Amino acid sequence: MTRTSSLHSGRRGPIFRTLALCAAMTVASTGHAADTQPWLDTSASFETRAAALVGQMTLEEKAAQMQNAAPAIERLGVPAYDWWNEGLHGVARAGQATVFPQAIGLAATFDVPLMGQVATTISDEARAKHHQFVREGAHGRYQGLTYWSPNINIFRDPRWGRGQETYGEDPYLTARMGVAFVQGLQGDDPVYRKLDATAKHLAVHSGPEADRHHFDARPSKRDLYDTYLPAFEALVKEGQVDAVMGAYNRVYGESASASQFLLRDVLRRDWGFKGYVVSDCWAIVDIWKHHNIVPTREAAAALAVNNGTELECGQEYATLPAAVRHGLISEAEIDDAVTRLFTARMRLGMFDPPERVRWAQIPASVNQARAHDALALKAAQASLVLLKNDGVLPLPRNLKRIAVVGPTADDTMALLGNYFGTPAAPVTILQGIRDAAKGIEVRYARGVDLVEGRDDPSATPLIEAAYLRPSADSPERGLRGEYFRTPDLSGTPALVRTDAQIGFRWDRGSPTDNLLARGEAAPGQGIPNDGFSIRWRGQLLPPVSGRYRIEAAADDGFRLYVDGERVLDHWANSDRLRSDGVDLDLQAGRAYELTLEYYDAERDAGVRLGWRMPGAKPPFEEAVDAARSAEVVVFVGGLTGDVEGEEMTVNYPGFAGGDRTDLRLPATQRALLEALHATGKPVVMVLTGGSALAVEWAQANLSAILMSWYPGQRGGTAVGEALFGDVNPGGRLPVTFYRADQAMPAFDDYAMEGRTYRYFRGTPLYPFGYGLSYTRFGYSKFRLDAHRIADHGTLKVQVEVANTGKRAGDEVVQLYVRRLAAGAGDAQQTLRGFQRVHLTPGERRTVTFELDAQQALREYDDARGAYVVRPGAYEVRIGGSSADARVRSRFTVEASRD
């Protein structure tokens, strides 16, 4: 097999003609199969084969192949392929998969090797799932090998709802974690890619979500090159990422998905990018409809392709044949774009015998393997950040009762964030605490809704399996579910099983994913992504007599029957999880026939069945009572992906369109926290969420604070272990935590001044890189191998780190550099190295960093229009956070004599 070289940059018509000629020469020298289908000739390069295949296509067929849902071309043996797949922190929207901590939580590990292990595991599962889909004849969305991850936008403002998808606010940390993720996804085979990773969204894109389809970002060139571009450059040059995704918004007046400056000048000319560019979904529509850059669909499609976007997520490229006829683009440009795309597919092994492709041998059994679950737990443990501890943690083993209170304690969504797959057995934080408590009584009360004014079906406890049975003579507990391929319960069920509880939440596109019950429906069981229905039947067994409140909720329609009487009926589409309830007098000892019918129309799906028993106190009062009866209170609250995320249509107090308008905890939770504190019991706060929270009241009044992010399928286990000291928290903040009264720059202003630890001049609540431990670390024997270096030289830095406490733990050793003569608008300091080291009590280790002046000290110079290394005095700082310089030393950079 010949290792391929990729297409070079520039106008691409001549490239295609050269490759087509090479293909013809190859055909002349090979056997009969190559004569008829030269694109299957494995002795030729991937580019040559791709050009030969594209040369057989009509213009209309080529245009169709440039859209994410590319149809089959049966006469050429080309199968259908959808380029759209997600794998931000696990294979997403494709059924069962291991779910790791959300990207921001992975960044909090500050552990590059661990990130590589996580990405390798994701790509193992992705490959296994893809080949299983192919064996079943499935070629749809979320079933392929081209993954639209990672998101390496800079989390410049804590209000941005999608910041949870990123690796935080620092370009260096983002680059290091991003490169490791890409390399883990794409594999190390010299011939075949394991997957295609996609660096998104190039390049100045971080909110507001409500404006993303029409705003024009115009940062200074210095901010662009010093903050917004470095991670993308690293993924292209070091990670060899195969794909880059454009953004919705404009940058300097051009659509980011059709920008000559970003895609031609920077990406291909300056960085030498050899892969392909994909638009964000329906971003090409924005070019003519919202940005008004061109007047028609044809012109928008032509502009995007001419400026370097080969693949569209959307349907505007269907107009490319008309654009050719109107003279807006040449067919040669389209040929070259399609050739790039088929080169990528061939490099993934899609047109070669499976036995030739190393990655095609990964068995389906690897999906959700025990080792993957163990890695998810390890990543969750490493992501936890201890923000405060007055000595209450670790919790002692001689406690008799703990109260666990709060809206995200028993919520699976608090584990997942967004862009997630289906964990086999997710462990909520409540369950994790119960497991770790080992005999200590744990009393739970939800207390309040996540946010004020939200119709929150999860506020009602699910009906537990103990009170449900499929039939009078069944030994099982739960309800018998019949899963139909149709939206109206017609036909033969594709799946019949017993579900212990009815508590389901499916991410868009993955309705076979059960997030709460243990027995999932696998993709091969034929449940479609949309337009399905389920009927659950069985008996309800009330434990006490009295008046019950039974509530059902669904996205989309539901009907509930009790003893044959229809008591709830909402058989209609809904854009969210909609709930309703009925009050019924039920008697203990009697079995009531129960039927719940549900259907999903499209996109997100979910259904719940809950109740409140007779005599139940109001949730707030129940929580305070639980606190009074306990020795320690663990409050679990914060945010979930239901309120922060991507372009939402539902707004709540403190949230707008998925972004945040208030950095504090929601008002409901603040009120409950104050009531819990007033009981006089020590309160430990565990926060869930994907962004910085202004929790200065908690910092001043509570006993301990632990940030858990969205910790993935084993997040509850990790939190429980950390609270009881079975693991020692060692994560660090990848973002700055500000105070609630801190005046922030305008959200839509992309200037960096006043943002992130590099340019924020005030005192934060918690600085970037911050995190406590159950042990202590000391720094000594700090040395530089030189105190004067050339502007193209290197500097070796060493420091000895010792665990001076009584517990084993992890220290994240962080190296920052600052220029001593920095002026107004310059960064105060910049992270240029970090290592996470594990030390046992008394253990010492020498940590070494090597700084390359051309990378570590470069700054963009507006006057020169290039990066420069300025001569003069610099300072190296090493410590446990951006505000914790344990040791420091100066050195001088001398200008080269050319």
TrEMBL record:
Superkingdom, natural source: Bacteria
SUPFAM superfamilies per record: (Trans)glycosidases, Anthrax protective antigen, Beta-D-glucan exohydrolase, C-terminal domain
Keyword Hydrolase part of the UniProt annotation: yes
Residue ranges occupied by any PA14 domain in the UniProt entry: 474-627
One Pfam family in the UniProt entry: Glyco_hydro_3_C
PANTHER family xrefs: BETA-D-XYLOSIDASE 5-RELATED, SUGAR HYDROLASE-RELATED
Family: Belongs to the glycosyl hydrolase 3 family.
Designated name of the protein: Beta-D-glucoside glucohydrolase
Organism: Stenotrophomonas rhizophila
